[in-house]
UniProtKB/TrEMBL annotation:
Pfam families membership: His_Phos_1
Gene3D superfamilies from the UniProt entry: Phosphoglycerate mutase-like
InterPro entries per the UniProt record, alphabetical: His_Pase_superF_clade-1, His_PPase_superfam
Protein name: Broad specificity phosphatase PhoE
Organism: Kaistia soli DSM 19436
Amino acid sequence: MMRVIYLSHPQVAIDPAVPVPDWGLSPLGRARTEAFATLSVLSRVSRIVASRERKAIETAAIIADAHGLSVEIRDDLHENDRSATGFLPPDEFEATADRFFAAPHTSIRGWERAADAQRRIVVAVSAILDEPPEDAGVTLFVGHGGVGTLLLCHCAGHAIGRQHDQSGGGGNVFVFEHPPFRLVSPWQSMEDAGSRRAF
């Protein structure tokens, strides 16, 4: 059984003219990640796997550079597919996200269904973790809040629900074990993860 960390990227530079998967980190998101990367709780991390979205890659690269590691970029770790609507103003996005979690077997405004996104992220993470490890260190996944919450629900045996979602702004971590999937520590901010030594 291995210990695994899932990290959601922190704050991004929002640009309605740019496709959401191509958004990068904001100065605040970058600063938070740089501080997180220095924490001793990451000393056991030996593998970093990131979503193909730019904000996740930038987050992972900061941590990898601080620890002399490389970043593996994998498909199927991306955020739930929201391309049908593209950018939504914050209030409209939050209302749509509420519906996404509340009706996991329904496509909300053309979004990928929550149940399908959960199945995708669980299968992808499981396949990656089933690969022969190079060493016995901790694996760090860098991804997104929405599919991260769906993965957390699976690990904890919860029904899909937004009450299990991360706090606003991103930059949160949870810890689980595999196999089988078992939640060890629920979402907590990058900053709290360092002070509580949950890893």
